[in-house]
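ok so I'm stuck.
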Amino acid sequence: MARKKVVPTMKAWADVDVALRRIGFLRIEFDCIEDAMNGEIMRAKTSAAKKVEPLLAEIARLEAEMQVFTEAHREGLGAKQSLQLTFGTVSFRKSTRLIISSVKKAVAQIREKLGASYLHIKESPDKDALDKLDDKTLASVGVKRKSGETFGYEVDYKKISEEAACNTMF
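replied:
not stuck anymore, here's the structure
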């Protein structure tokens, strides 16, 4: 997407000050709208959680009852260890899990006894450490430092908030 050129309309520092005031009002209004939205989301989540709680409880109860019944009548499953019924299938499948009691100890032992090929290792450049190096050293590893000026501004929200009020749309 091509950048659009900004056509300046400001002619004096007073215009910049007016823009800072307007940005402040807009951000305050944005925050008010966002707060109202978050409140509605929390109310909706709370309401939904209350509605689904009995559904989840019944699902858990039915699953437990099916498991107890199926375990007691396992011979009815046949050699496939599964039974197709009208509304679904019940089955037993062999499953294996690896239980790691202490990840830190396991990683150390795996590294020592089996090697790093059994570990996930994520590597990424440490920009804070690299920033302390000189430009020649950085260039030798394919990194370059780019400096420049960045425009910034600060809005005095104390002054603006005295005039602003939350007029939320929600």
